[in-house]
Write a structure and sequence with these properties.
The longest helix has 30 residues. Helices cover 66% and strands 0% of the residues. By secondary structure, the chain is mainly α. The relative contact order is 0.14. It is elongated and about 70 Å long. It has one domain. The chain contains four helices and no strands.
């Protein structure tokens, strides 16, 4: 009777944690911290508030990409069913899009007049 009661208490299997994904995720998170420190130390002299906002978006997207990739690898390692989080692919794509658009606009210069001369 005691043997039957003891065998009915099964612990669920531990999620399979893979070391390479944890290591890669940790390295990417450290690179994200390094990037954050680097960009916080970089001085940007904006001519308008629009340039300051664009620069802040650019830096946030650039640093956020490192953390998004780290989150991807941590998710692969720690989540039991990573296929449920297929939408997460949109996070780095969105951040890369924001980074691209802000880089282009900042590279062209933000002018106060809409029409411009060419």
């Amino acid at each position: 009777m005691i043997l039957a009661a003891a065998s009915s208490f099964h612990q669920p299997a531990a999620p399979s944690v893979t070391i390479p994904e944890i290591v890669i995720g940790s390295l990417l998170a450290l690179l994200g911290l390094r990037s954050l420190v680097k960009w916080l130390r970089t001085e940007f002299l904006a001519e308008s508030w629009r340039e300051q906002v664009l620069y802040a978006l650019h830096v946030s997207a650039r640093v956020g990409l490192w953390f998004a990739f780290a989150g991807f690898f941590f998710g692969l390692a720690l989540v039991e069913d990573p296929a449920r989080f297929g939408w997460y692919l949109l996070v780095p794509i969105g951040l890369a899009g924001v980074q691209l658009v802000t880089a282009v606009v900042l590279g062209q210069g933000v002018s106060s007049d809409v029409g411009g001369n060419g």
